[in-house]
Structure formats: C-alpha cells, structure tokens
Amino acid sequence: MYMQSGQAQKIARQEMKDGNNCCQSVIIAACQIWDIDIPEGLIDAASLFGAGMHSGCSCGAMTGMIIASGLKARKRPDVKAEQIASQVHDRFKAAFGATCCRAIKKKRNPWERIGNRACIELTGQAAAILIELWEEYGEHGPAANIGDHPHAQ
Predict the structure, then answer these.
(1) pTM value?
(2) DSSP 8-state assignment for residue 37
(3) To which H or E segment does residue 26 belong?
(4) How crowded is residue 22: how many other Cβ atoms within 10 Å of its Cβ?
C-alpha cells in the first residue's frame, strides 16, 4: 500500500543530496509521485523555507509538506485544505517530536549534528508521511474521520 511513500522518501533524500533544501525536496518528491506540475517560481520561493526559514523556526520539510498539500488539494475539492495542514502538522510533530527546526536539531546526538545527514533522513521521512497521509484520503474522498480532527472547523 505504501510503495509510493518509499519512492517519495528516496526522491526527497536524493533531491537534498543534489543541493535542494528540505522544503524544496519534499515538494519535488510529492509532485513527482502525484504527477503534478510544479508552478513556475515555486521551487525558487521554497528556497527561503529551508533550515527553518533560515532562523530555526518551522521545519522546512514540514512547510514543504503543507505547500505540496496545497497543490494536491487544488485537484481535490472534496478535501478541506486547512484540515490537511493541521494533520500534516500533527503527524510531523508526532514523528519528530517538534515542528521547530532548532528544537529537532537539539534532540540529535553529536554524530547526527555533523553535516546534514540527519536532515536528509528527516526530509525523506517527511515526504513518506505526506504521501501516506494523502493515501488515506483515497482517490474518491477523505477518510471517514477526517472531519473529527481536533483542528477541524
């Protein structure tokens, strides 16, 4: 079932190794998996969201998950984008213990702080989580409990 999430993970990791930041890499991976064209200029704009917006704030990988979800949601009128954004936030926080880049990095051991290997892994995992979340929505509608999310309006 989650074969596409594994592929997204590989793409995102490779994109980071090729020089893209975490935000850009998640967007590129998701759009490749979903066969969505990336709007002109989006990857350039996403360059400012890496490394927690270059200030250590919201993790760029999570930001990329939300941006990619916005692109996917445009083609899915049955999905409320704001519910997806809150679910992305909550899943990301559950997986990594925080949404703040600085806080995530503080939790790493000294070996993980060398270079950006840990960020590459996190970015790949974030891309996989995103694809899995959208797979739960299916092709024809959201999961039954999506409106029950605590952040749903």
Answers:
(1) 0.85
(2) P
(3) helix 22-34
(4) 31
